[in-house]
Amino acid sequence: MTAEIICVGTELLLGQIVNTDAQYLGRKLSAMGIDMYHQTVVGDNEARLLAALDEAFHRSDVIILTGGLGPTSDDITKETVAKYLGLSLHMHEGSLKRMRRRFQHMAQPMVKANLKQAMIPGGARVLDNDKGTAPGCILEEKGKTFIILPGPPFEMEDMFDKRVAPYLAGRTGEEIVSRVLRIYGIGESALEEELEDLIEGQTNPTIAPYAGTGEVTLRLTAKAGTAEEANALLDPLEARIRDRLEDRVYAMGEETLDKLAARLLMEENVTFALAESCTGGLLASKLVDNPGISQVFLEGLVTYSNESKVKRLHVSPETLDYNGAVSAKCAEEMAEGLLETSGAELALSVTGVAGPGGGVDAKPVGLVFIGMAQKGEETKVHQLYLTGDRRRVQNGAMLHAFDWVRRRILGLPEDRNC
């Protein structure tokens, strides 16, 4: 089965909003093992949408459209699909009743223009909208499947997960199981070289690498008659990958490095404190996104100025004068001072040049020092040379810091990614 996405909306073409619908659907379809070779963005124009539908019809089995289901005159998706297929629209009483109840619940009047949202092409399977007013629908016509979904992401995602995904799963005639391995400490090209024979020889299961910002994920997907059979295909492949990549595989699924570090700190009940300079509180903000982290995360300081490093962390003025704020010695004293003043068992510091300005030959943009101090242990400092703009440098420092926390708690080698 091949699928294609057509996202409708002039605002997408003008860059007024980000097209997260296509990203979400692409990820979901890939996980289901449904091939997708084309995505199209079309403005609110009937002629151009008809042309896009005709192209999709001749090359894909399933055409998924998002957007253009609103009450205004430029919301034309259902009308255009119906015209392309030679179908008429009719009022769907069930959807109309749901819309009336929703407007009553919101204590808002339902205007005449909203009636068009309950108009559905003849023969369509209606998809109820639990998050908004416009229903979606599925049309099986001329050997093809047209799936029409609302544009707002929170409506589209809910409708796809609840109603479209089960429908598509039933159409494939087989069980599709995916696993996502999250990897840090190796780039995408080096990873593909490491797994070259496995990737080139793939049939079922398949291996799909995706490069993120500073890390890589591998999606392993198997198709079989049952989920048990699909998992049996995945088990030996995952084992071979883990054997080659070793501790660079840090998690599965949706658990990012910051979430993993937070979980390990809480599970091991290790009290923790942060002192950030160039990352400006980024690490702390990631930690506090995790419920329950207050049981171990004692404090996070943004000591941006030299004066703050001296006053809050007891960094020696002589160190700042001789070595500078961006130095291994400063990172060491920041971590040790924080360990002392916070009372935490583990303290981590970050200082560096995030850019875009401020770098010099001796201390270029991307130079970052991360210090870690722990009660009863020798303080260590990692020196990094990161590339990219300010955000990428900060993000790279964050990933390395949380990976180091993971390695310290789990007793893994700590200098692999320096």
UniProtKB/TrEMBL annotation:
Domain of life: Bacteria
InterPro entries xref list: CinA, CinA-like_C, CinA_C, CinA_KH, Competence-induced_CinA, MoaB/Mog-like_dom_sf, MoaB/Mog_dom
Domain MoaB/Mog: 4-171
Cited NCBIfam families: cinA_nterm, PncC_domain, PRK00549.1
Family (UniProt): Belongs to the CinA family.
HAMAP family (alphabetical): CinA_B
Name listed for the protein in its UniProt record: Putative competence-damage inducible protein
Gene field: cinA
